[in-house]
Write a structure and sequence with these properties.
Chain A: This is Biotinylated protein TB7.3. The complex is a heterodimer of chains A (70) and B (470). By secondary structure, chain A is mostly beta strands. Chain A has one domain: Beta Barrel (OB fold (Dihydrolipoamide Acetyltransferase, E2P)), CATH 2.40.50.100. Chain A is built from no helices and 8 strands. Chain A has a 4-stranded antiparallel beta sheet, with no helix packed on it. Chain A has a 4-stranded antiparallel beta sheet with strand order 5-4-2-7, with no helix packed on it. The N and C termini of chain A lie close together (6 Å). Chain B is of the alpha/beta class and 470 residues long. Helix content of chain B is 39%, strand content 19%. Classes of the chains: A mainly beta (70), B alpha/beta (470). Chains A and B meet through strand 5 of A and loops of B.
Chain lengths: 70, 470
């Protein structure tokens, strides 16, 4: 089942750490957001192949899709 | 070929049998029932947990799905009243469809008496609920009124079951999605601890009962040895990290985290520190940058009030960039719900020590057990920053015109200079020390010892109030 990872808060996408199709494990950092002067890692919550839905420099709103893990 | 039905083992015990469940909760051989053999659907009992006396009751799911009538409700009330008289924890094991329909309003009256008994006991003895099966209607609000709710994998809590939901609104939903461990552990905050099975649910109840029922004595000598609490933290102040290893390093042994999936930007853990039970509250920068928001303030406020009412001292680990800004938060009641945390700390009389590890900004600084709210002691690590806002944000506001007027190539150097100046004048921990909102700057390695001494020097006290499920 696909696991959707969504933004918990409004933030800038500072760094995309993994590439589309990479195999990731639960706990891996996928993307680093910047908000409230903090670098906030977005963590995988499942194992699988990842598709990243954002680009560096994007602004995400709460609830926006960041990545999908299949 | 004939198919023969599997042999039914007549001696097999029904796992739903309340006596089976109570035996699994207590130390072996310590169970004594308080109620006779009857059809009430509730068994009350006394027993021990690692030698600590407790009272417990269990609904009997083998009789009418555990539905509660007036007689069963009286057993629950008696159990709670005995626990209050003897000043011991009371544990409820729930698996019940709610009030007995056949008894009508008499059953409702009984369920109401159970609620009233729970509220009378609130803040006087620890009340723990373990939900092992469906707990519906009245049986849902019973656990919800208690201090800590633990849910096994088969546990379900809802006011109205899937069939009623379907007939009234047409919404199709199953019991698990309506009121299982996932929705209540992550979304609603009804459940404090979810477990993979019944045995672990009972094991967690034993741990919590022991922490709250046998709190132990503080022995600062036990934590004199140096331990670097900053070992798992990144050197850069802007980098997020998980605060849980820091909480683990603070405590003598791993504690019990409450609400670990709900509002994870604040961590609330019961555990042993220098031999005594304490409550730890810590911002978690890994989630939402560690910001306070409406639901995390409410979560922490309830934890503070529970600990205060049960006489459990508090340790507050602060690393907070502020309150989460935005429309969603304002509409969610961040002002009303955030005020609960201010109220809870300012009201608390238990010893409560604050440690600012990296930063504390703005209103969130005040809310995290600041000196002004009556903290027993406030410590800070050497590089901590306490300010109305971060130095760089403050410079951008205070010196906007100056920065705009400067030549572009010199702007960044000027900005860095102004940030340095701002840190010195308004932010650095030195200034907080001078004005007395921080008592001392301490090293991460001596943190355990200093917190233990500060807690030990404060008079033991206990808030005279109940623990309303905020």
């Amino acid at each position: 089942m696909a696991e959707e990872i969504r933004a918990e808060m409004v933030a800038n996408v500072w760094k995309v750490v993994v590439s589309d199709g990479d195999t990731v494990a639960d706990g891996d950092t996928l993307v680093i957001l910047e908000s409230m002067k903090m670098e906030i890692p977005v963590i995988a919550e499942a194992d699988g192949a990842v598709t990243i839905k954002v680009n560096e420099g994007d602004v995400v709103q709460e609830g926006d899709l960041i990545a999908v893990i299949e | 070929m004939t198919i023969t039905p599997a042999a039914v083992d007549e001696t097999a015990v029904d796992y739903r049998d309340p006596l089976v469940r109570l035996r699994a909760l207590f130390d072996q051989g310590t169970l004594r029932t308080l109620t006779g053999q009857d059809d009430s659907g509730v068994v009350g009992a006394r027993g021990e947990i690692d030698g600590t006396k407790v009272i417990a009751f269990a609904t009997d799911a083998t009789k009418m799905g555990g539905a509660m009538g007036i007689e069963g409700c009286r057993h629950v009330v008696d159990a709670i009243d005995i626990a209050v008289r003897e000043r011991v924890p009371v544990i409820g094991l729930w698996h019940s469809g709610g009030a007995r329909l056949a008894e009508g309003v008499t059953a409702l009256d009984g369920v109401g008496q159970v609620f009233a008994a729970m509220v009378r006991a609130s803040g006087r003895v620890p009340q723990i609920s373990v939900v092992l099966g469906p707990a519906a209607g009245g049986a849902a609000y019973g656990p919800a009124l208690t201090d800590i709710v633990i849910m096994g994998a088969e546990g379900r809590i809802f006011v109205t079951g899937p069939e009623v939901v379907r007939s009234v609104t047409g919404e199709q939903v199953d019991m698990e999605r309506l009121g299982g461990p996932e929705p209540h552990g992550r979304r609603s905050g009804v459940v404090h601890i979810t477990t993979k099975d019944d045995d672990s649910a009972l094991a967690e109840a034993r741990k919590v009962a022991k922490l709250l029922g046998a709190q132990g004595r503080l022995s600062p000598a036990d934590v004199a040895e140096e331990r670097d609490l900053a070992a798992s933290m990144p050197p850069e102040a802007s980098r997020a990290y998980d605060v849980k290893p820091v909480v683990k390093a603070l405590l003598d042994e791993p504690g019990v985290e409450l609400h670990n999936k709900w509002s994870p930007n604040i961590v609330t853990t019961l555990g042993r520190f220098a031999g005594r039970t304490v409550g730890v509250i810590a911002n978690n920068p890994l989630r939402l940058g560690g910001c306070l928001d409406a639901s995390s303030a409410e979560k922490a406020a309830r934890f503070v009030r529970m600990c205060d009412s049960l006489g459990v001292p508090l340790i507050v680990l602060v690393d907070v960039p502020g309150y989460l800004p935005g429309l969603g938060q304002e509409w969610d009641g961040v002002v009303r719900r955030g005020a609960k945390l201010l109220h809870a700390f300012a009201e608390a009389v238990v010893p409560r020590v604050t440690l600012v590890t990296r930063k504390a900004y703005g209103g969130a600084y005040i809310a995290m057990n600041s000196r002004s709210l009556g903290a027993t002691a406030v410590f800070a690590w050497p590089n901590a920053e306490i300010a109305v806002m971060g130095a760089s944000a403050a410079v951008n506001i205070l010196h906007r015109k100056k920065l705009a007027a400067s030549p572009a190539e010199e702007r960044e150097a000027l900005r860095a200079n102004l940030i340095e100046q701002q840190l010195h004048e308004a932010g650095g921990v030195q200034r907080a020390l001078e004005i007395g909102v921080v008592d001392d700057i301490i090293k991460p390695t001596e943190t355990r010892k200093r917190i233990a001494e500060a807690l030990a020097n404060a008079p033991a006290a206990r808030g005279a109030h109940g623990n309303i499920p905020l």
